[in-house]
Design goal:
homodimer, GMP Synthetase, Chain A, domain 3, 3 domains, 7-stranded mixed β-sheet, 5-stranded mixed β-sheet, globular
Chain lengths: 555, 555
């Protein structure tokens, strides 16, 4: 029989609580800076005091253990304060997705039973409009009120609230399985689903990400001495959990407010930021910003996730001196599961000590675009429909399924979807992937984005990557359309590149792809027999390609 | 009321089990090497298979969940296999302290209720002698039998046992609070006390140590690409937990067998070891070995703990190119609590990128000898007798008390000692320390080694450090002796350095210390008024100075 730890007179296991992440930075880095937009800066000692004041203020508004406190804000020091103060009280932090429709925001606030809302002045009008339909919502606190905002009907302004409260809030100790955060997954199908994470899960995720990102040999790292700036919204899966990691390490942190490419580049230069993370769209936006031409990007390490990073984008970033590398996760996984790192130096040197003007080889670019290697404690399998492991040959594809101590338990209030998520004891990502002998995982496609033609699978992601290399193509999305004979066939929806000698024709694209058929990269049956030209591709609230909308449009 | 994570249809929190540390290395580093004495090498894939075979073999000997399996071995791949296989079965690994007396070894095997003993041939005779007095001990398995060892009366030989078993042992999943390991603290007072650690504690300690040792900015690190060799015995607090960290990172690991300085240096060179950890005595032994003069020590990072590292020893190691740094912990704390790292480069460059022939400044040597900075999640306080925090001024001393998720729950079967260990909700280290404004902790002395003279404290450790700088002194221990007038007075017990112009006199020592009194480093009342010359100082089973024996001898 298992012998459980039980020592009479001794002490039970210490619970893993989010507040304990503050222990080391307060002891070692109390004078380290936290910066908001370059307009406001304070130290970790002040952060800790403001966390106490915020908790005192929320308690005065009736927030107790189990209360949901929602936040609608751009990336800010205030959001960081809420990341700690709300869970540390035993309350639940709801991070509201700012890119949802008003109706969806109302629906999620209602579902989460939010009682207090901290809302940036930019969203105050919306909040005031919704509050009448949200009977549980008792208080609204305004963040950063612009001149002329009428404070009538709100509980007050954030800074005024903090100013009159004590920093000595008596944070309690409680069960580590207490819910700390909740938010709603968007994705391209169905209505938003609620996931939540416990203190234990957030602490373990923080330690797992720290272990993965601190330990690489040739760059792609986050360590003491780095300066951190998130470029993934803080409402999106805790900004991938990195604010907790940066705080635990006691790093200088820079919060950019609402994203604006030129302002981000200026802020990055002024505050000497060395580490950020973002989706490919944001990286592309930074590299194409008006001020990008005159910007020195070297010394910036950027994790790219959310969707696949193309080799073209990686090459562009590397050429500018960015140590760019892929990572992977999802809302349900807290989110980190995989992070890329170089296992060896490329011929011309790589990583931290690469000379700025050194050429990066194609092999290394391809390696950096692989989705990554599993984090510590992540049990990762790629399986067929009978849950058998596929060969680790870098080619055979299957569904990526995972276990790890920080994965969501399921969808709140949706037992059927929860059971489906966790079928056979593994969390099903619904992403189709391969794994190579070195352990690198490559996400090939969303399960639903694979195209089944004549009984064979075609990867829309791979087709997109290849079509995007055509000089006449600015952006492309490949979707499945119904076909009488083959079941499904690929359709390429293309945004032409302006000034590239006219939009590409189907023949142009076919001729371009023929070389890849000849090289054996794709099978002949993967060649699209139809293209559509559009001005822009539809995107979801978090900037991902909205294939659901495309599929509705082209049948 | 706290809202607990409970999602119908979903999945409960995944338990933290030691076996899960193998997930990432098996996925990413299956071909990485594990080396024993340079005589045997195999890969992680084989490690995993041998762990399965060992579990199958132990199960055949009747080992089940809750059974205690004891090991008596030098540092070896077999010990690493037992570190995983025994806990992964739900059984308890007892690491027997080889330096205890035969009577103490018998006593601890009996107390731990060991049923199976894996014993190196070097200790087989002892084991066979003891077994008649240990009715619970059912089986003895011999490790590395020398020719001529009679296998009669033993369950067999380790390799033969593994050879006939399957690698597919069905390792169960169970409560993370299950006991994984147990061993006995030695120290200089009382009889050995049993501590034990759960799976949860070992996993969290592994993540905490990884976070601390992977993230430093200027060297003092353990990361991918390092080659690991323990130089702290594997029976001593899981070799400080580093075999688990090295395995999680998928590092090449080198196990040196019984310690022999010249063989260790040859092995280190041949296997290109980059990271080790040891007590000061072992480091001194390596630097003084016959082959040391012809050895290139550069590229070796060494954590020094167990007792204080003198600036003289650190200087000697740094001059040879070793990136040497202090750390701190104890048997009760799994053991890591503090690890040193440089917060800034010294004038002449420091850490990983220091040129081999560059001089290390005195400030940096002093910094490296500070005991260190707290690990992630460690709550560390230095308190007076009323549990009030002392000022963080680098001077005021108090007792170091700690909390962290991996500290022992108490002493098995000793509720009074357990309650005393955990008085006021903190683990009492009984070490006297100061903390400076940068967060560096410096252990000044064991509480019982402080000398109270005329109502004032004198640090025996500080006196030892200063007296050791006298050219005529090879080794020194300072203890308190009773004094009618002052309560206690310091006595210096000195091993003279041969060939240094005769042994030092009390006048020599006093004159030597006067400069430090003049400089304000020590008060005048700290000057010893008696010295004793001896040939050697008494040491405990783990090589620490045995002040208990000295105090018994000199009253």
């Amino acid at each position: 029989m298992i012998r459980l730890l039980d020592v009479p007179g001794g002490r039970a296991a210490e619970p893993l609580l989010v507040g304990k992440l503050l222990r080391t930075p307060l002891a070692v880095s109390p004078a380290q800076e936290i910066v908001y937009r370059g307009e406001l800066r304070y130290d970790y000692r002040t952060l800790r005091q403001r966390i106490g004041r915020l908790a005192s203020g929320l308690a005065r508004l009736g927030v107790a253990e189990g209360t949901t406190v929602a936040v609608m804000d751009w990336d800010s020091h205030r959001y960081l304060e809420a990341y700690f103060a709300v869970p540390m009280m035993g309350a639940v932090l709801m991070t509201v997705n700012l890119r949802l429709s008003a109706a969806q925001i109302r629906e999620t606030l209602d579902h989460a039973q939010a009682e207090v809302l901290l809302v940036h002045a930019d969203f105050l009008e919306l909040a005031m409009r919704l509050r009448g339909t949200l009977p549980r919502l008792r208080h609204i606190v305004v963040l950063e009120p612009a001149a002329g905002v009428d404070p009538a009907g709100v509980a007050g302004e954030y800074e005024a609230l903090l100013a009159r409260e004590t920093a000595d809030f008596p944070f309690p100790e409680f069960d580590e399985n207490a819910v700390a955060t909740t938010f709603y997954t968007t994705g391209t199908t169905g209505s938003p689903k609620a996931v939540c994470f416990s203190h234990r899960q957030l602490v373990l995720h923080t330690l797992g990400v720290l272990g993965a990102l601190a330990s690489p040999q040739f760059g792609q790292s986050v360590r003491h001495g780095d300066v951190y700036m998130p470029l993934t919204p803080m409402f999106h899966v805790h900004a991938w959990g990195l604010p907790y990691v940066a705080t635990l390490l006691g790093l200088k942190q820079v919060y950019p407010g609402r994203y604006d490419a030129d302002r981000i580049l200026a802020l990055r230069r002024r505050e000497q930021v060395t580490y950020s993370h973002c989706v490919p769209t944001i990286l592309q936006m930074l590299l194409s910003a008006p001020s990008a031409a005159n910007t020195d990007f070297s010394g910036w390490k950027i994790t790219v996730g959310g969707s696949a990073m193309s080799t073209a984008l990686a090459r562009q970033a590397l050429d500018r001196g960015i140590d760019v590398f892929a990572a992977y996760g999802m809302s349900e996984t807290c989110p980190f599961l995989l992070a890329n790192r170089l296992l060896q130096r490329s011929g011309s040197g790589s990583g931290d000590d690469r000379p700025a003007d050194d050429e990066v080889g194609n092999d290394e670019v391809a390696t950096r675009c692989l989705t990554g290697l599993p984090l510590p404690l992540v049990d990762l399998r790629i399986v067929d429909e009978q849950m058998n492991d596929v060969p680790h040959d870098g080619r055979t594809v299957g569904e990526l399924v995972v276990r790890a101590p920080w994965l969501t338990a399921g969808y709140v209030g949706d037992p059927a979807a929860s059971a489906q998520l966790w079928a056979d004891g593994y969390l099903h990502t619904r992403d189709i992937a391969s794994i190579d002998p070195a352990g690198y995982v490559q996400i090939r496609d969303r399960a639903k984005d694979m195209i089944k033609s004549g009984g064979e699978w075609i990867s829309s992601l791979q087709l997109e990557e290849l079509i995007a290399r055509h000089p006449g193509v600015a952006e492309v999305a490949v979707i499945a359309v119904q076909d009488q004979r083959w079941g499904e066939r690929p359709l390429a929806v293309i945004v032409p590149r302006s000034g590239a000698g006219g939009p590409p024709t189907l023949d142009d694209i076919t001729a371009h792809l023929e070389t890849h058929v000849a090289a054996g990269t794709i099978p002949r049956y993967a060649l699209p027999d139809r293209i559509e030209l559009v001005d822009a591709l539809p995107r979801t609230s978090v900037g991902k390609l909205d294939k659901k909308a495309l599929r509705a449009q082209y049948r």
